[in-house]
Amino acid sequence: MKLSIFRLATLVLWASLLLSPISKAETAETQIHALLDGLHRDAAQANFDSYFSRYTADAIFLGTDKTERWSVADFKDYARPHFEAGRGWTYQPLERFIMGDGGLRWFDEVLWSENYGHCRGTGVVVNTDDGWRIAHYSLTFLIPNDVAADATALGIAAEAGTGHF
After folding, report:
1. Residues with Cβ within 8 Å of residue 72, at least 6 apart in sequence
2. Cβ contacts of residue 137 below 8 Å, gap of 6+?
3. All residues at 6 or more sequence positions from 69 whose CB lies less than 8 Å from its CB, including other chains
4. C-alpha span between 64 and 62 (Å, rounded)
5. What would the pLDDT profile of 43-64 be if each residue is shown by its tens digit?
6. Comparing C-alpha atoms, which of 86, 38, 37, 43 is closest to residue 63?
7. β-sheet with 92-101: strand ranges across
8. How far apart (Å, rounded) are the C-alpha atoms in residues 69 and 139?
9. pTM, whole model, 2 decimals?
10. Each residue of 111-122: pLDDT tens digit?
11. Which of 8, 35, 51, 88 has the most CB atoms less than 10 A away?
12. CA 126/CA 107 separation, integer angstroms
């Protein structure tokens, strides 16, 4: 009987050691999905505190306009009046890829916005003492190649004469 218990214990130990890295990777990926899903939910619900708690203190947010390279403090200044008025922004995640290992990961996601159509979010997340946090996020509009020349011509025309080239 002792030999059978020993064999069972050994089998359980080996199984847990073999599956441990997979479980950790799956856990990190699950946590990162939850972080990003929560970010989009908080934005849609204009939940200021929860939304910004998902970023590191030194995070950078790149918006869709070339002037929108914001520290968290600057981004808060921009977002606060919108969120206080109950107006967040809604981007529905359609697909997401998470890459990397250890305490630093990067991701890209395709989003849907009623106002802007398909968009892409890309970023970097870090595992902190408080869990996974966003260190860098970039939001871009996705323009179909068939209309890209027309769409970018609008942007060029809007900037003509502004000296912002």
Report:
1. 52, 55, 56, 57, 58, 59, 61
2. 55, 59, 60, 61, 62, 121, 122, 123
3. 60, 61, 62, 63
4. 7
5. 999 999 999 999 999 999 999 9
6. 43
7. 69-71, 55-62, 131-141, 117-128, 104-113, 92-101
8. 11
9. 0.81
10. 999 999 999 999
11. 51
12. 11
Structure tokens at 86: 């109950």
Size of the chain in residues: 165
Structure-token match 């990067």, residue found: 106
Dig out the tokens for 153 from the structure: 């011509």
User: Which amino acid makes up residue 126?
Assistant: V
Structure tokens at 106: 């990067």
